[in-house]
Design a protein that fits this description.
Two copies of one chain form a homodimer. Chain A is of the alpha/beta class. Chain A has twelve helices and twelve strands. Strand 2 (about 105-110) of chain A pairs antiparallel with strand 2 of chain B. The structure holds a DNA duplex.
Chain lengths: ~350, ~350
DNA sequence: CATGATCACTTAAACGATTAAGTGATAAAC
DNA sequence: GTTTATCACTTAATCGTTTAAGTGATCATG
């Protein structure tokens, strides 16, 4: 039984036997933590190459308690959608980019996260050193339960919590930026087709919109503030309704580009043109925004940068917890600024 | 030193001690593989809840040699781009979707894959049960070296290899489909702005284009076959050149939608219109294709389905290798059919 | 020439699970 | 009343590493 042909992967023991040294020695050449004679080292390397040996990450991780891997918790209801969602996929791009630079792998958790009980198994099972929580839907309690399961957490686009680092784009600034732009063009009746109210971006963007109006001395009109949906499905009908108001808006601030596209279509369907009759500003600066006609004025969010920043912070946190033996660091809170991208869908208020 | 306060995560031993049973018993309640008295089981569950215990996946995986995790090898040069690449990101969506259904996690490997030596460490270090190789660039040798490092492999959009399952879209059919459509509209001078020749889709699509011409009795014209780049950067100038030919093409088959967008722009810049003067068909059916003017006729690839299929096959393969003790299965080869999506950028040949 | 350093390793105890084999008690069978 | 089966566990080996502590040889020191 002992002399069966070696079909199994070789272990450190096989290498040690082949070289006539102990497993400890092999481990030391692997990790370079001890002084070894050059010829021993070379002999071991040679055996590794000959036998096509690669260390087992589980055995190593079991002992060292580090895997050089980050976990990503997909905050959306359907995690597979997360990957193509233009918003989250660019964040993910930043994450992978920075993780790669620092030689970390990235694991997408596929568990169901709804309900505190269900959450947790895989985020603390040792396969990752820390986790990134991306845009959890509002109303879930994961942000309360997670930090005590896994201290190495950085959240993106999430409500603030003690002991959890947060990275987010400044939604207030974004809402204000878009609205100010329209005000500067002379518009005063500015409608706002908001995004979903169950996302954390809802409140601050609305506040930014209202703040801009306030500074300009414009009284907000509740009929001009309509809760739309980020998938754009509601925007057509809602725009139609807005245009049929006694005093119709001369500008529409759309909660994202998908809404903006539908808004533009609806405006045209109503026999009006963009931006001559109605200006439209979007949000997100998706690739399609620069390719449609008219090219969309929109708010660009530094999404890749968010991913990079969050990843940098998480890896820092992991390093800190390794050296400090798990002392809780106080939370950091980073807000990145969105940028206004002026294209062709906005123009000065037409004199009548 | 032994009586320090328990700040560490509890282990199976802690649970066993707390309940006055052996660790084996705790393990059995965890895995339900042995008959236990109901009250013992309940006592153990209670302790787990009280102490907030979760099993360590590394320790478990070390013994069982399975992690319920899939690895993804990003075949592109820059893996972070992979995530937003409209092609690969939809495949990834299918992968995550199916992995989630079967309760597998998905790990994005961030290693450098260029060069046979560099490749390999993490794909066989035990952290995943199998790997998916997505669209490796042609000319790399990973497809030769990988299978012997990790038998559980399924490749997407990769050149065929013994013992490696391949899932791909039928590029020949796609090239023929697009060309036939133009031929059916009466076109005979049909240019082809190909994609990058270093990708495996190049040859079969070109063959499909030529086959369609051949069936229609059209002599291929080398001046009409131009190697472009998938990022669209070359297409503008190349289209301009095509339009300046003595007998200019009446239709252009673009290697992908990005190329098609630039082609349409260039046609307009030349004072011509789409589809009246020149028909354009794209490839990929990106989201933007249905949003531009004119809406783009294009070839839709079942990308999500590719991801799902590949993942299903990989998980089957993993299950098979677990039960058969690593016997090599013969390779399967699945080709999925692309679909023609007719929109507004193609029209019948104008009578002159 | 005993003492201490230094070198180049080896020994052996972890890490946190799983699981085949063993055990003692009770119940059923003959 | 001995044997056998069943139940409900426990014992102990194992998975493949890491690493603190130990060891024997060689060399320099006072």
């Amino acid at each position: 039984m002992k002399t069966q042909t070696r079909l199994q992967k070789p272990t450190i023991k096989d290498i040690a036997n082949a070289c006539g040294v102990s497993t400890a020695t092999v481990s030391y050449v692997l990790n370079g933590k001890s002084v070894l004679r050059a010829d021993t080292r070379e002999r071991v390397y040679q055996a590794m190459r000959d036998m096509n040996y690669h260390p087992n990450a589980l055995a190593r991780g079991l002992h060292t308690k580090t895997m050089r891997a980050l976990g990503i918790m997909l905050g959306t209801v359907d995690p597979s959608e997360f990957v193509v969602n233009p918003y989250t996929s660019r964040i993910l791009q930043g994450v992978v980019q920075e993780a790669r630079r620092q030689k970390f792998h990235v694991t997408l958790f596929t568990d169901d996260w709804l309900g505190a009980d269900a959450s947790g198994p895989s985020i603390r099972d040792g396969r990752t050193d820390g986790i990134l929580v991306v845009a959890p839907i509002l109303g879930t309690d994961i942000m309360d339960t997670l930090p005590e399961m896994q201290p190495n957490i950085v959240a993106i686009s999430a409500p603030a919590r003690p002991f959890v680092d947060i990275v987010d784009v400044d939604d207030f600034a974004g809402g204000r930026l878009a609205t100010e732009h329209l005000i500067n063009l002379g518009h005063r009746r500015i409608a706002y087709l908001t995004g979903n109210s169950d996302l954390s971006s809802y409140q601050p963007r609305l506040a930014g919109y209202l703040a801009a109006l306030d500074v300009a001395g414009i009284e907000p009109d509740n009929r001009l503030i309509v809760e739309s949906h980020f998938d754009g499905s509601l925007a057509g009908a809602q725009t139609k309704a807005l245009l049929e108001l006694p005093e119709r808006p001369t500008a529409i601030f759309a909660g994202n580009d998908a809404i903006a596209f539908q808004t533009v279509s609806a405006i045209r369907d109503a026999g009006l043109s963009v931006p001559e009759d109605v200006s439209v500003v979007g949000y997100d600066d998706m690739p399609a925004a620069s390719v449609v006609t008219p090219k969309l004025t929109t708010i660009n969010q530094p999404l890749v940068e968010i991913g990079v920043t969050a990843t940098t912070m998480l890896i820092e946190r992991i390093a800190a917890s390794e050296s400090s033996g798990g002392l809780r660091r106080k939370a950091e809170n980073v807000l990145l600024a969105p940028k206004l991208v002026v294209r062709d869908s906005t123009g000065p208020l037409a004199r009548r």
